[in-house]
């Protein structure tokens, strides 16, 4: 069972999961509550980027959904 105050980070330099006392903050993603969440950091970034890239409210390249006329 993990400690409530335990935090994990994903190091972008070494592509490893680290505890608080790891590489400098500028080279890491996190904190994450569990080691498993930190292991999925790059996957989560890719999901968020995809959502951002295809959000018609924030992307002029994607046509917004048409509203039905009443």
TrEMBL record:
Residue stretches of biased makeup (Basic and acidic residues): 40-51
Region annotation (Disordered) ranges: 40-70
The identity of this protein, by name, is SPOR domain-containing protein
Q: Which organism is it from?
A: Tenggerimyces flavus
């Amino acid at each position: 069972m993990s400690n409530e105050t335990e935090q994990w980070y994903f190091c972008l330099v070494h592509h490893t999961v680290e505890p608080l006392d790891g590489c400098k903050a500028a080279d890491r993603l996190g904190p994450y509550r569990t080691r498993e969440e930190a292991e999925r950091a790059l996957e989560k970034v890719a999901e968020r980027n995809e959502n951002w890239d295809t959000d018609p409210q924030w992307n002029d390249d994607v046509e917004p959904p048409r509203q039905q006329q009443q």
